[in-house]
Amino acid sequence: MKYGLCNLSVVPLRAEASDSSELVSQVLYGELFKVLEHRKKWSRIRLLFDSYEGWVDNKQFLFISEEDYTSLKKVKPKFVSDLVDIITTEKGQLLSVFLGCQVHACNFLKHQFEGNFISEKLKKHNIINTSVLYLNSPYLWGGKTPFGIDCSGFTQMVYKLNGYKLLRDASQQATQGEALSFIEESEPGDLAFFDNAEGLITHVGIIMEDNHIIHAHGKVRIDRLDHTGIFNYEVRNHTHKLRVIKRVI
Questions:
Q1: Is the pLDDT of residue 233 over 90?
Q2: Closest CA to 172 of 238, 233, 246
Q3: pLDDT category of residue 61 using cuts at 50, 70 and 90
Q4: Model pTM score
Q5: CATH code assigned to 126-247
Q6: For residue 130, which phi and psi values (nearest 5 degrees)?
Q7: CB-based contact 91:109 (threshold 8 Å)
Q8: How far apart are CA 239 and CA 235, in angstroms?
Q9: How many Å apart are CA 99 and CA 97, to the nearest integer?
Q10: Which residue, 6, 67, 201, 210, is most buried by CB atoms nearer than 10 A?
Q11: Residue 185 C-alpha from the chain's centroid
Q12: How far apart are CA 214 and CA 11, in angstroms?
């Protein structure tokens, strides 16, 4: 078994071993993973955090030993807490990092980071404070950064920054936590899931106060939530059909 560490700002995780393949997710600076299959140009990996799998370009990560992998995964996580910050590499070059990048591997990489970070598990009420940092981030299928993010990437990153683990896709996240019977039972920070005409869960958002929801749809935005689903103020129509509300925290 081989092991890897992301030493670039953000790396595409693809469905197949090709630059033109679908972007299924992203690997952020400092993330650890196992290398399940190694080819000349591409490697199929499994991320440590959520066990998500995909293909990455071999030029875009650093192979590390099993000993280093084991040692690094024991280090307490530190997440960049500003939208954008800078790391200085061993050669004195600058590397951009984003909200949610993990900087606890900087010493191992001989990189320097002097910015703000989060390293503690925070209380549930802080979920909303974190979520609004992503407001107006453009929607990007497979994205996990303020410069492009999808609905489940958004919820996963917000929870991650507060010290909680969500799986990667909306359908996977819907298997976590406790189902609530009514919107009235929900609290800010709970998750609302939405399905399509076939009954498949395809969307997720974070419930706010006063029956509002923050979610990634075109961009990270705030809309109204009712028993039918999400009511979009701009188009004056419901855009998503409510399936279930879950309490994970």
A1: no
A2: 246
A3: very high
A4: 0.95
A5: 3.90.1720.10
A6: -70, -40
A7: no
A8: 9
A9: 7
A10: 6
A11: 26
A12: 26
CA angle 78, 83, 84 (to 5 degrees): 85
CB atoms within 10 A of CB 18: 12
User: Could you tell me how far CA 158 lies from the centroid of its own chain?
Assistant: 7
**Buried-exposed string 56-95: b where 16+ CB fall within 10 A, e elsewhere:** beeebbeebeeebbeebeeeebbbbbeeebebeeeeeeeb
Residue with tokens 């996240």: 173
Distance, CA of 38 to CA of 173 (rounded, Å): 29
Provide the mean pLDDT of the chain: 96
Alpha helical stretches, state H, 113-230: 126-131, 151-161, 170-173
Q: What is the pLDDT of residues 64-107, one digit of tens each?
A: 999 999 999 999 999 999 999 999 999 999 999 999 999 999 99
- The most distant pair of C-alpha atoms in the chain lies apart, rounded to whole Å, by 56
Q: What is the pLDDT of residues 123-137, one digit of tens each?
A: 999 999 999 999 999
Paired tokens of 14: 């693809």
Contact 79, 103 (CB under 8 A): yes
Domain boundaries, the chain: 2-118, 126-247
User: What is the C-alpha separation between 242 and 51, in angstroms, rounded?
Assistant: 27
Residue 162 half-sphere exposure, CB side, CA atoms within 13 Å? 22
Instruction: Return the CATH fold of 2-118.
Output: SH3 type barrels. (2.30.30)
